[in-house]
Amino acid sequence: MTRLIVAAGGGGDAVAAAMLDAALYGNSERAVILTYAWDRLLIDPVPGPRGSDDFTGLELLTPAVWTVPAEARPNAPAGSTLPRLATELPHSFALIDPGQGVEGVTRQLEELVTFLQPTSIDLLDVGGDVLARGDEPTLKSPLADSLALAACGQVNAPIRLLVAGPGLDGELSHEDLQGMLGPLVHTFTAEDAEPISAVLEWHPSEATGMLAATARGVRGTCEVRDAGLPIPLTDESPTVHEVDLDEALGRNELARAIMSTTTLDQVEALSREVCGFSEIDYERNKALWLKDQRPAKLDAESVLIQLAQFEAEARSRGVTHTTFRHLTEVLNLDGSQRDDLRRLLINNRPEQYAAPLWCISAPT
The pTM is what? Predict the structure, then answer.
């Protein structure tokens, strides 16, 4: 009695998949989560997603699908959260390898479906950018979601498309998505968030972090990413909706354009053509920029002074919360200093920790 959940965007979507599985099915046999190894530059200094050749210790499940056990390791200098997720969560994590484009991912999915004979297959996206047309000015990271959607659209098996936390990734607003969201499947609660609470203490996903925080009752406006996007945290934020997969494909121009791709380079080229950019190009450029930057020293006194200044400015923008990922960037710290920063702030001001977010203090 195996379930299969495809984490459309990798990263935090895999963590959200674990939360969804526990919320809907409780303590029954855990699902297999098919996900990218794509953790962005805070974790992985190498731009783009990792493939099976980028790891040691993977386990072959089918001719085209590898699982990521706790013992697996990314080959330096690459990084990945998947081995640690496999250590801390009771699910099995299988790797989406996009190196052979949509045709390769479709083959991986078909083999997995044949091998597992799953009782259900869900394609899960946190935020809802899987429903983007491709020309939205706020769209930043359509590639992974579109690739997963295109592959799922070609598999001869019933697949349910789910959007959790509509609007939480800051790419499409909840208002943009309202007309596309189908039936409500679930509203996450604090109890649902508990199984992944320890993971979110270290995992950098902002969208899934906000999803868990809103499940615990946090409301307000959260500032995220290096650009400081404001994300509304509302009663709709912890919801999960079903969306018609064929309608999503009909709307997502990039997903349709990449259907017959056989390499990741082809997917990228079509993303540039359809959307005007490739997010992997953005990562390449940012990686080059970061190479020449000297991160600030994590000095407690200096950090707290800078934090007070940031909080004052954020309050003036109507911001109530932020993520430790955003704070790391705001304070000009390296991604490797994020956990140290988090410990420093929580130890000094525990009353402002709205797990896993940081609450912008009210002026005293």
Answer: 0.96
